[in-house]
Amino acid sequence: MLSVLIRRLFQMLFVMLGISIVVFLIFFATPGADPSSRIAGRNAAPETLLAVRHDFGLDKPLPVQYYLMMKHLFIARDLTSFVNRGQQVIPEVMEATPITLSLVFGAAFFWILGSITIGVVAAATKNSPLDRILMILGLIGISMPVYWLGEVVNLITQARLHDTWVFSWVPPLGYKPLTEDPWGWFKVMVIPWITLAVLYIGIYGRVLRAGIVEANQEDYIRTARSKGLSETRILLRHALRTSLIAFVTLFGLDFGALVGGGALLTEVVFGLQGVGKLTYDALKTLDLPVIMATVVYASFFVVAANAVVDLVYAAIDPRVRLA
Amino acid sequence: MPDSDTKILLDVRGLSVSFRTERGLVRAVDNISFRIGEREIVGVVGESGSGKTVSLMSVMGLINDPNAVVEGSIVYKGRELHGLSKRALRSIRGREIAMIFQDPMTALTPVYTIGWQICEQLRAHNKMSKRAARQRAVELLDAVGIAHPAVTIDRYPHQLSGGMRQRAFIAMALSCNPSLLIADEPTTALDVTVQAQILELIQRLRRDFGSSIILITHDLGVVAEVADRVMVMYAGRIVERGTTRQIFTQPWHPYTWGLHDSIPPLEGTRLRRLPSIPGSPPSLLSLPPGCAFAPRCRFRFAPCAERPELAGAGGHEAACFIPLEERAGLRAARGRALKEAS
Question: Which of A213, A220, A312 to mutate to test the interface with B (most CBs of B within 10 A)?
Fold first, then answer.
C-alpha cells in the first residue's frame, strides 16, 4: 500500500512538471505572446521594451527563465505578478483556494446525494411516469448553463423575492470564511452549491440510472433473486454497488477539474474570489506568474483527485485491487 | 412419472409461458406438465431455445419480464406457487428451491467475497448471527470439497478457478437445505475433468442432503451419468420422457433419435460425418399447428398435422403418432440408412 502511494506521488510530480513546462512554453515561446510588450504598454519605445525585458529577465534563454520562475514559485516562494508589481502570487492563490474548495466540496456533497437518489429511484421505477419525469428534470438540469441559472437565482434571491420571508435570510454575494463564521459561510455558500450541483445531478443521475438498468440484466442479479433477497436489497447492495464504479470515475475527473478552476462561471456569478476567477483575471492581463501558479495548482488537484479515485476504486472493486 | 410410492415434491400442470413481442405472442413453453418426486434427479434435455430454462425459471417465479405471461399450476409440497405474493415466493426461493446457473463467473456478484454472498442468503432466510452464518458458510464450503474453506471464504469470485466458483455457488445454493435444486447447465462452462467432479457433487447432494434435483442440460452424456429420469423438450413442449434407461436404450421419438445420433459412437467404424438433424429449430412465432418437429422429421405422415399428445406406458411416454410397435424397426432402418450415407 505504501509503495503504491509513493509511486502515485512520483507520478503526480512528473505530471505536474510536464504541465508546468507545457504551460510555460505556451505563454513564453509562442510567437505573438511576448509578455514584455504587454507589460511595457501600448506603443512603447524600443528602448523601454528592452529595459522591461531585461528587468523581468525575459532576455535570458528559455530554460533559464523556466528555472527562475520555478525557483521563485517553489523554493523562494516570492514570485511576483507582472501586472501588479510587488503583488506576491502565492498568497493570492492561498487566499483563493479555500473559497474554491468550499464551493466544490459543498456542491459535490449535493450532487452525490441528489444524483444517487434520482438514479436509484428512476432505475427502480424504470419506464414509469416518475422515471420519465426525473429523467426530463435531469435533462433540464444538464441543459441550463450555470451562469444563466446563477444569474436567475441571484435575481430571485437577491432582488425580486429577497424581501419576502422565503429568501430574506440570503446574505449579499461574497465569501465568508468557514473558520470565522460557520453559519454565515453556510448561508453564503448554499445557493452557489446547489446551482453548481444542478448540472452534475442531471448528468450523474442519468449515468447511474443507466448503470443500474444495465446491471439488472446481469446474471448475478438473477442469482440474487433466486436467493430470495428483497428487491430493495438487490437494488442497493447488488445493482447500485456494481454501478458505482463508472460513477466514481466520472466524479474524479469532474471534481479535480472543478477544484482546479473549472468552477469559474459559478465563482464569477456569485462574486466568489476563487481560483477560477483568479486564473480568469490573470489570463485577461496575461499575468504569467499568476497563470503559472494557478495552473500548477490546478494540475495538482486534478492529479490528486485521480489518485484518490484510484484508491476509491480499489475499495469498491476488488478486481482492481493489487495482489 | 415418478414411481407411485415416492412422494411428489413438485407437480406442474399445464404450464405455459408466453412473451408479448412486437411481432406477436411467442410461446416459449407450451402447456407442459411434469412431476418431480422426492430424492429424484430428473434431466431436462433439449437444444437452445427449447424452453428448458424458461419453464424452470417460471417455477421459481423468476421471470419478471413485464411482457411475460405465465399460465398453469405449479404445486410445490402441496402448495400452489403460481400467483403467490412476491413476499411468499421470496421465502421459498433460496430456502425451499435453489438454483445453480451455467456460468459461475457472471452469476456471482463480483464485488463481494463468496463468504459474504453465502452469509447473505443464510441471513435472508434464517435468524442467525454473523458469526454463526460465517461458521455455517465454512462448513458448506468444506462440504462441497473446497480446500482450506476458512481461507477461501474471504476470496472474491475472480480469485477462484471456474470449478471452485461453481463449487462455491453450489455451497451457496445448498446453504438453506433446499428440497429442490434446479441446476441450469451447471457444467457447460467448465472443462471436462471439473465437469465430472461437479456431477459427482450433484449426485452426493441427493445422498447427503436428500434433495431432488432438476438438471437442465443439452449434454446427453451428463444426463446418462446422473439422472433417474429424462424429459426431452422441443420447441417449448415435452416430446418424450421416461427413465434414463428407457430414453437411452429404446428412445421412441424421432427427435430423441436425432439427439442420440449426434453423439459420436464409441464403437464400430468411425463415421466420416456425424449425422445431424436436418433443418433448424422452428421459430416460436410460427410453430406448425401439429407436431412441432414434423417439418424436420423424415417419418412424418398425415396424422402429424395434428398435435400429438404424450402417450405410452410404464412411465415412458412420447408425443408421436408412429405406432408403438413400428418405432424400433423404423429406428433400426434409419440407423442403417445413416451409416450408408456417411
Answer: A220
Contact B75, B10 (CB under 8 A): yes
Residue B138 φ/ψ, nearest 5 degrees: -60, -45
Of residues A94 and B340, more confidence is placed in A94
pTM metric for this prediction = 0.82
Closest CA of chain A from B191, distance in Å: 20
Other Cβ atoms within 10 Å of A65 Cβ, number: 18
Taking the CA atoms of residue B33, residue B38, residue B44 and residue B49 in that order, the dihedral angle to the nearest 10 degrees is 60
Residues of B in contact with A232 (CB under 8 A): none
* Strands of B97-100's sheet in order across: B97-100, B180-184, B212-217, B41-45, B229-234, B237-243, B316-318, B311-313
**Stretch B11-29: mean pLDDT:** 90
| Test the A interface: residue of B87, B90, B111, B177 with most A CBs within 10 Å | B111
| Grid cell listed for A308 | 484518490
State the pLDDT at residue A236: 92
Which DSSP category does A214 fall into? H
Smallest Cβ–Cβ distance between A219 and the set B64, B107, B156 belongs to B107
The torsion angles phi and psi of A69, rounded to 5 degrees, stand at: -65, -45
The ipTM assigned to this model is 0.85
DSSP state of B43: E
Place of cell 464403437: B267
Q: Is B64 on the interface with A (CB under 8 A)?
A: yes
Average pLDDT value for residue range B28-41: 91
* Rg (chain A; Cα; Å): 24
**What's the whole-number average pLDDT of chain A?**
86
Best-predicted range by mean pLDDT (A41-55, A114-128, B60-74): A114-128
Rounded percentage of chain A residues whose pLDDT exceeds 70? 98
pLDDT of residue A197: 94
Count of CA atoms in the C-beta half-sphere (13 A) of B324: 7
